[in-house]
Amino acid sequence: MSHMRTCAVSVLETAPVWQGSSPTAALRGALELARRVEALGYLRYWVAEHHNAPFIASCAPPVLAGQIAGVTSTIRVGSGGVMLPNHAPLVVAEQFGTLEALNPGRVDLGIGRSPGTDLTTARALSRISSPPGSDVFPGMVAELVGYFERSGDAGTAETVVAVPAQENRPQIWLLGSSAHSARLAGSLGLPFAFAHHVRPQNAVSAMAAYREAFRPSAWSDRPYAMVAASVIAADSDDHAEWLAGPVGVIIHESLEGRRNRPNLTPSEAAVYRYSEAERARVRKGLSDHLIGGPATIRGRVAELLRATGADELMAITLIQDLSDRVRSYEILADAVACADPESLSGSAGVR
């Protein structure tokens, strides 16, 4: 008889803003959701970085992660991710070194290459234009990692030390949605988080590229990969599809280039008018999301984990009502089961 284990399962939070609500309510709701998923046994609770988006309130990962750490006690907290082109690596090292010092053994620093916004806002953030495909990014990653590896000859003119980062190393992850970012993560010996919710078509090839490129490091002695996917689960397929109505509108308005308002509620999305061609395009876009009742979710989760070989599943769940959202995470936690007898804590091999 095979021994079953529960694979690590985690949450990606964007603090979504809904019609009739506010960014303040979204941020406070993120704290309450963190308490609830911690009680369900979730391993991590990561917060995203987006800017100038009226439908997302998660703009400051280190601030929000610190608040989440303060209202929880066991769940790992961190960024999914800090968009490194927007920030000086020294500042990021100081911020996350501080978080780790105050919450030892609980902090993750996920870093990404995208600006997480439009280029005009990216320029306002960094005062320079550094496109996502720039060769600057690997150097920024190396600089950031170096601050945590440096024992620090503070006071010399040649050495800059991120003081809180000394002896306070979070788990550093590289985020991405392509084989290019996967190979960079592997070559640096870092754990890798793949954004299936952004580029599902790249998932299998990126995971393979990561494992092929992986070299053991001071950060991880073997490859460890997470897949982050959009999940909306409910007690029936029909109810899950109704809850996913706002996601359909998001897909449509994003494709039309006019997503510039808070997310619609499910009731509003249910009466949204599409042409037949638009409805077909939305259905196609939703097909890569994991949407359904318990049996459907079990099948979709098993399929995704089998295809990617992921060690961990992270879910982004855009559901307006807190109780419906918590129920979705309950169903997902039950669905994430693998046949591998080796027990994983979510950080096996990751230092």
UniProtKB/TrEMBL annotation:
Residues 19-311 form the Luciferase-like domain. It comes from the Bacteria. SUPFAM superfamilies: Bacterial luciferase-like. It holds the Pfam family Bac_luciferase. Transmembrane segments: none annotated. InterPro entries: Bact_Lucif_Oxidored, CmoO-like, Luciferase-like_dom, Luciferase-like_sf. NCBIfam families: oxido_grp_1. To bacterial alkanal monooxygenase alpha and beta chains. This is LLM class flavin-dependent oxidoreductase. It comes from Actinoallomurus vinaceus.
